[in-house]
Backbone:
């Protein structure tokens, strides 16, 4: 049992401290939080936006209805465990390609020759309409359930790790493995057509998948505020409205009292706009200059900012002005790898895994223990137990 290497702090929700990290925990002088799965419960927002995006793509592009279990939280968290999927549009993209590789040729073949629709369309909305109309005619207006078996996602991930020789996988790594699988099935051309239609994640208003996801998550009013254009798809007021705060105000107050508000920050893959809406008055417990929102940074700078890049933590700590030993609370493998990669910049960053919102918290605890993270918590409020002990 991997948790044998940890001290257990008993209680209603036990916390664990890595025995070799106990002394270092006493030196922590600042706290950084992830948002999704840590400060904010996003299971009914981001996670469901991924599922809804993939479902709409298959319904409109292939006239296939996904069953409830076809894409689950387990699939989403499995990709996040590879360390390269903090961006949820990346997750939706790879899951879409993965499901497509499970289709028999007669089903996948309905998109044969539809690459041209991408160049002929003015925007993602007209693209989806054009493809959907053509496929609807080709299938006789009959929708079918997705009852096919793609290769197990675990197999795709394992095969990719062997090929690239690394535990941290990128979107491009998994895309290449799926491309090779499609090629072995004699469906490489159809795979590329599908990939071309949905578009790689990137800019809102250009790629179909990216635009669809943003319209689902943010809603029409917010996409116009954030991106200055849109909406392209009318899919409700925005799933961000289903998000709930996952930390107690008393916890933040205690931490701010110990470390000072100037040494409290956020490093998150999401944007500032929606975060401030959800957290509301709790934002007063954070140093605004030490809150780094990578979705906003990505639009300005590009790929270099994405987790597990150390960019976010380094920027946040510099803006604290004096902190040298931060602790980062995250919930994914890329969060762990990001925290470890900061040390070469002179900041010894400890990592606490928050597992309470994972599909299987016990399994996630074992996973993070196998990585050797410094603390394992059921919820972010348990961090006060850690500092109470050390």
Residues:
């Amino acid at each position: 049992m991997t948790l044998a290497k940890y001290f257990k702090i008993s209680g209603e929700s036990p916390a664990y401290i890595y025995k070799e990290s106990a002394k270092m925990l006493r030196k922590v002088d600042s706290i950084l939080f992830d948002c999704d799965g840590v400060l904010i419960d996003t299971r009914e927002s981001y996670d469901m936006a991924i599922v809804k995006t993939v479902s709409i793509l298959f319904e409109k592009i292939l006239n296939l209805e996904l069953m409830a279990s076809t894409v689950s939280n387990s699939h989403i968290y499995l990709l996040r465990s590879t360390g390269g999927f903090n961006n949820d549009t990346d997750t939706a993209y790879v899951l879409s390609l993965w499901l497509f590789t499970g289709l028999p040729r007669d089903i996948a073949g309905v998109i044969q020759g539809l690459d041209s629709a991408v160049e002929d369309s003015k925007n993602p909305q007209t693209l989806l309409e054009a493809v959907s109309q053509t496929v609807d005619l080709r299938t006789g207006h009959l929708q079918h359930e997705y009852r096919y078996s793609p290769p197990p996602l675990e197999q795709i991930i394992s095969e990719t790790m062997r090929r690239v020789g690394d535990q941290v996988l990128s979107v491009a790594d998994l895309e290449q493995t799926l491309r090779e699988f499609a090629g072995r099935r004699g469906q490489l051309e159809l795979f590329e057509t599908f990939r071309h239609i949905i578009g790689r994640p990137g800019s809102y208003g250009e790629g179909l998948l990216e635009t669809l996801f943003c319209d689902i998550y943010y809603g029409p009013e917010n996409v116009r505020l954030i991106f200055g254009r849109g909406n392209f798809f009318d899919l409700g007021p925005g799933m961000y409205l289903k998000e709930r705060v996952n930390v107690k105000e008393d916890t933040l107050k205690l931490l701010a009292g110990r470390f000072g508000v100037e040494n409290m920050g956020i490093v998150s893959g999401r944007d500032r706009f929606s975060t401030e809406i959800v957290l509301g008055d709790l934002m007063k417990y954070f140093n605004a200059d030490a809150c780094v929102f990578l979705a906003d940074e990505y639009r300005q700078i590009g790929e270099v900012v994405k987790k597990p890049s150390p960019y976010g933590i380094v920027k946040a700590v510099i803006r604290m002005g004096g902190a040298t030993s931060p602790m980062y609370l995250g919930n994914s493998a890329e969060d762990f790898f990001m925290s470890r990669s900061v040390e070469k910049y002179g900041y010894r960053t400890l990592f606490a895994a928050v597992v309470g919102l994972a599909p299987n918290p016990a399994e996630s605890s074992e996973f993070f223990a196998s990585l050797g993270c410094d603390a394992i918590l059921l919820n972010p409020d348990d961090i006060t137990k850690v500092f109470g002990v050390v």
